[in-house]
Amino acid sequence: MGTEEGNEQVLASRKHLVFAYYVTGHGFGHATRVVEVVRHLIYAGHDVHVVTGAPDFVFTTEIQSPKLFLRKLVLDCGAVQADALTVDRLASLEKYSETAVVPRASILATEVEWLNSIKADLVVSDVVPVACRAAADAGIRSVCVTNFSWDFIYAEYVMAAGHHHRTTVWQIAEDYSHCEFLIRLPGYCPMPAFRDVMDVPLVVRRLHKSRKELIDDSKEEQRVIWKLKSNDGTLKLTKYNHYVSLISWILQNGPTKRDNEVRKELGIGDDVKVVILNFGGQPGGWNLKEDCLPSGWLCLVCGASDDQNLPSNFIKLAKAAYTPDLIAASDCMLGKIGYGTVSEALAYKLPFVFVRRDYFNEEPFLRNMLEYYQGGVEMIRRDLLTGRWKPYLERAISLKPCYEGGINGGEVAARILQDTAVGKNYTADKLSGARRLRDAIVLGYQLQRVPGRDICIPDWYANAENEFGLRTGSPTAEMTETRSHIMSYTEDFDILHGDLQGLSDTMTFLKSLAELDAVYDSGKNKEKHWIRERMAAAGIFNWEEEIFVARAPGRLDVVGGIADYSGSLVLQMPIREACHVAVQTNHPSKHKLWKHTQARQNAKRQGPTPVLQIVSYGSELSNRGPTFDMDLTDFMDGGQPISFQKAKEYFARDPSQRWAAYVAGAILVLMTELGMRFENSISMLVSSAVPEGKGVSSSASVEVASMSAIAAAHGSYDNMKSFELGGHFHSKIEGLDISPRELALLCQKVENHIVGAPCGVMDQMASACGEANKLLAMICQPAEVIGLVDIPNHIRFWGIDSGIRHRYAALYFKMLPDSILGEAFLDQYSDHSDPVTIIDKKRTYGVRAAARHPIYETFRVKAFKALLTSAASDEQLTALGELLYQCHYSYSACGLGSDGTDRLVQLVQQMQHKKKSNTEDGTLYGAKITGGGSGGTVCVIGRNCLRSSQQILEIQQRYKGATGYMPFLFEGSSPGAGKFGYLRIRRRHPPNFN
């Protein structure tokens, strides 16, 4: 339901009203937009009680009225930030529990009593959940005004923090469901907890100090902005028409000249460029240097600490400085994205250089709005902290922000609130409370980008799956798509080496490469969130030169799982979903550089040096930056490669770019282990369809594909040899002499020592050495491939994702204690011979259950392998299924189970015993949790028939009905990186970007 902007400027009420306005405890942004709504309500003659934790000056600077009442109270904590740019997800959930869940009963009792004491006519929330419930308990209507809600923000945090936090999201969603309706602001996130929605324009704070050159001829209108008239008890708020048209012109067209009162007060001349540094009052401790800025620039610093010394070209602003006036006086803004900064940057047509925040899920929606109106430039966090600001600032002032929408959202919202308080009904009761509550609870899980979701979110956010093959489709659709891509890639590229092997995802990847030139057509696809990724990718490749493409799949842990650490036999199946990596090398003097990379090189004055530039598709889906770049000389120290520990610290500096360790780490490992040196620059494009956090080795597929592509681009690709592995032939690159097994071991070093994840080698081996429709039989200690086991035609494996993020945590059995304290173990044994894990001295470790699992798992895996080669029968499948059930329960005994995976296994059991008759053969036979346990994916074994597929889909729907989460289905297999080899391609008709 939307509101129309018109010329009506009257707020009318038959009586004096009392509003209780609750403001969330997260930052100043909410308080600053609340000010604008409250100001209009007070000017209409109403009392407004604001419940907030924000400082008084945020309100009193803008409103001087006895009708404003401030009550200092925080009823939610928002998102707890580790620093100005990083949200601590677990701490946020724990803090919310401490603030709003534990004292909930007393909060409700206190707020109900208070609301009755002030005789509130309406409760307004931005966007405090418990306020809606308190209003309902007090018998008062409530309305929310916001662009996001905390059930949406927290739901995805639960994925990382653990399912036991789900009750927090349930409670928040239930509180919101008591709200009458939502007044929704632009840049909004999905908010299905609310029954009805009314859209309003941007809520933007007005200017206090207007531009003199624009308003000298309207001094009377400048002095008298608002005039209250009373006639027979009716209050009317009237604007002078001339003032309205004047201010509207100013805000819509922006400054043509930055000569205004603020600049004059600060002594800033006309020829000086000004950037305002606005990180929500949290830049304390940053090393701000004079050479951060281009020559002739000044920086206005918001929120600097009192003891912080600033260079001469930085000006420290007062804590209570009025930001809108400063924004209007500046040429661009540098800061983090929030509603306040984005709305004011758009309203005043100010270019915004932003640094992304990790794990604040509101940001992608605001960033999309900012970039849609051509007002944003993303700065890499590393460049922010090291002072490489110049190329970003210079790029920003060349932009022409084009927002033309309304900016009177505060007035429109105030009118709606007043009408609601006097009894007007805006609700339609379109959805039941139960439906709204269910949708709200599961939304964070839906945002894990799975197919089949039925919740409406903006197209630009959902299309990434379809564009980059991140979804499973019907066989008919895939065959049609495959035929289309075959025709396309043969027209676009010459395949100089390698074979696509009929893989539709590889054809899709090649098609995406061929279409990169389309991003330069500004009239196409400007609403797609991934346009920035594609433009970055198109800008790093020289289309007249060769490109090397490698592919590595994820894996389904059929049986063996965590026993790999203890030397058990494991059976792994490479799945259909895979990661593709394209690599191109060029001489540094001919390499195409991003502007900030070029600026960094110019600053060093050393001439062209080798650089690495990486683009990663799908960045919006996992809270990470889309690009990474570095000088390859950063990997050298005194003529030798730096240590793995230094590299780990290097990549950990910027959480939004930490993902690059999985990719770039391959280069350092090749330098250290094989003595390689990289004299040319490297461009890489990474596109992975392997879902993250689901226990199917997304990280291993990225590592294996990256190292394979780098090795191919630097090897002797004209001289290929073959070698036999388990009766099957694989290719290896003679120049680098890397076999798939060796490649896997090198990739394990990347993950263990550079990423810092204590994993075994099973995942990398499966991704590198596996083959389609076969199980890789291997022993992970010491990483030996036993062979490849054919999957019989009558047997099929599926993976069903539980939606719970994957988390890590023999003869002498009677001699083992039930448990042991870490400190006691170290005292007795000194070490555990694992270089990548650490024993916590204060933790008590379960010993017997953990030891029991690998002992019996070894037997189960051997039995499973033997049964696969036995005669096909229902008894064979029953026995295989029983072994999987035993594996699952053994996991649980180790403390590695989860509610989600247990539920999926139970659903398989129920389906297994649901036969139409006693003579009917079964279809599904067993299931188990996979990989490292504690969530992730369940492996299911069944008969290869249509009925089995139907039952898997039924389980998917039942799980969704019980939990609200639509599981990702893994079905089908594909070749490992060794079997795929690599492609060497050249663009047939290079695009002309001139």
Automatic annotation (TrEMBL):
Cite the InterPro entries for this sequence: Galk_glycosyltransferase (IPR012369), GalKase_N (IPR019539), GHMP_kinase_C_sf (IPR036554), GHMP_kinase_L-arabinokinase (IPR053205), GHMP_kinase_N_dom (IPR006204), Ribosomal_Su5_D2-typ_SF (IPR020568), Ribsml_uS5_D2-typ_fold_subgr (IPR014721)
Asked if the Swiss-Prot or TrEMBL record annotates the protein with the keyword ATP-binding, the reply is yes
Q: Can you name one GO molecular function term for this protein?
A: ATP binding
Determine if Cell wall biogenesis/degradation is one of this entry's keywords: no
**What are the Galactokinase N-terminal domain coordinates in residue numbering?**
543-584
Name the residues that span the membrane: none
Against Gene3D superfamilies, the record matches this protein to: 3.30.230.10, GHMP kinase, C-terminal domain, Glycogen Phosphorylase B
GHMP kinase N-terminal domain span: 662-770
* Gene Ontology BP terms: carbohydrate metabolic process
Q: Which UniProt keywords apply?
A: ATP-binding, Nucleotide-binding
- PANTHER family in the cross-refs: GALACTOKINASE (PTHR38134:SF2), SLR1395 PROTEIN (PTHR38134)
Report what the protein is called: L-arabinokinase
